[in-house]
Design brief:
Strand order of the largest sheet: 13-7-6-5-2-3-4-16
CATH topology: Rossmann fold
Number of domains: 1
Bound molecules: nicotinamide-adenine-dinucleotide
Largest sheet: 8 strands, mixed
Number of helices: 12
CATH class: Alpha Beta
CATH architecture: 3-Layer(aba) Sandwich
Order of helices and strands: EEHEEHEHHEHEEHEEEHEEEHEHHHHE
Strand content: 15-25%
Radius of gyration: 19 Å
């Protein structure tokens, strides 16, 4: 791909960025990267799956569902340069079981964020986390409610871009993995395998394991998001896909992680999930051209790091959903410094 014509100039170094879903897995890496760049970061998160301790100490934390009526006033008051919108019900399998809840969280939640940006006195750039599970063929319908919701939000992004001049960047992620991913079964397959290996349980494979996935480390995704926040962007507003550009089978992944853990490979096969796509490998040409980006973390290194992180943090990532844990803590102020030691 040749040079991409840009219609949106590079932002001067942003001073203030809002990260919705910043207490989640990807959001914690993004927040960490933004703080390293010297940006003031405001995390907005309902903690429905996110963890309070994922928010690094340098960030300000706002305990808020993006659908709450207080969001527009908060965005207006903070007047951010960029809003990075990651808050979502991020589990495609749960979405398949409850499409209504998925649409409420992901479609209505994203629309609430766009409206907050539109009605603020100064309009922020919006970076949105979509998925490579949306078929590249624009006529095709995505196979799951989760992907349908993401596609609907992409359309809203395009509409707000053309109607209100809001600068948007849609990033479609492949399978993101790394430290701090939810360790429960329905989280990403790397996290699920790490949890099972450390518990001495067989690795559970849905289907025959020959399905392929493109794994990209969360630090690489955070790097792409930072670039999307500051760099010139093309006029067309079309999505950019983020992945490693190569894929491996789930069986291969199981073998690699078992070897890294130093335990014999033990597998348990289950019925495939309807929401899963059979094969996924990402064409990163456009993201490379627009963002000057490529994934840098080698899979072997990233898997080793992730396994080590799960080994040293098992106690804190055990299957409890965060709201269960939150319920045991003293009531938190609604807006306060992050408490994570990242
Ligand atoms: N992890 C992946 O492999 C992957 C792949 C493709 C796309 N994505 C997208 O990336 C984003 C981040 O995913 P993740 O893996 O970090 O998931 P995550 O569950 O760890 O993070 C999502 C965060 O959003 C918060 N949240 C959910 N609904 C909210 C609401 N209504 N208001 C405020 N906060 C809310 C949760 O508490 C959580 O902290 C999501 O939009 C997801 O759909 C992730």
């Amino acid at each position: 791909m040749g040079r991409v014509r840009s219609d949106v100039e590079r932002l001067p170094e942003p001073r203030c960025v809002v990260v919705t879903g910043g207490a989640g897995f990807v959001g914690s890496h993004v927040t960490q990267r933004l703080l390293a760049e010297g940006v003031a970061v405001h995390v907005v998160d309902s903690l429905v799956t996110g963890k309070r301790w994922n928010v690094p100490g340098g960030a300000l934390f706002h305990h808020l569902d993006v659908r709450e009526p207080r969001l527009p006033a908060l965005v207006a008051e903070l007047s951010p340069d960029v809003v990075i919108h990651l808050a979502a019900a991020a589990d495609p399998r749960r979405s398949a079981n409850d499409p209504l809840a998925d649409a409420q969280a992901n479609v209505m939640g994203s629309l609430a964020v766009l409206e907050a940006v539109r009605t603020a006195p100064r309009r922020a750039r919006v970076v949105f986390s979509s998925t490579v599970a949306i078929p590249a063929d624009r006529g095709a319908t995505p196979s799951s409610p989760y992907s349908i919701g993401k596609l609907v939000v992409e359309k809203y992004m395009a509409a707000y871009r053309s109607k209100y001049g809001i600068v948007t960047c849609i990033l479609r992620f492949a399978n993101v993995y790394g430290p701090r991913q939810g360790g429960y079964e329905s989280a990403g397959v790397v996290a699920a395998f790490c949890g099972r290996l450390l518990a001495g349980e067989p690795l559970r494979i849905f289907g025959d394991g020959h399905q392929t996935r493109d794994f990209v480390h969360a630090r690489d995704v955070a790097d792409a998001i930072w670039r999307a926040a500051v760099r010139p962007l093309p006029a067309d507003g079309l999505p950019l896909s983020l992945g490693s550009g190569t894929s491996i089978t789930v069986l291969d992944l199981a073998g690699r992680l078992s070897r890294q853990a130093g335990v014999p490979l033990s597998l348990e096969f289950r019925e495939p999930h309807g929401a899963d796509v059979p094969h996924s490998v990402v064409d990163v040409t456009r993201a490379a051209a627009v963002l000057g980006w490529r994934a840098r973390v080698r899979l072997e290194d990233g898997l080793g790091e992730t396994l080590r992180w799960f080994a040293s943090n098992r106690a804190s990532v055990d299957a409890l959903p965060s709201h269960t844990i939150e319920g045991r803590l003293a009531p938190a102020a609604r807006s306060e410094r992050g408490e994570g030691g990242l």
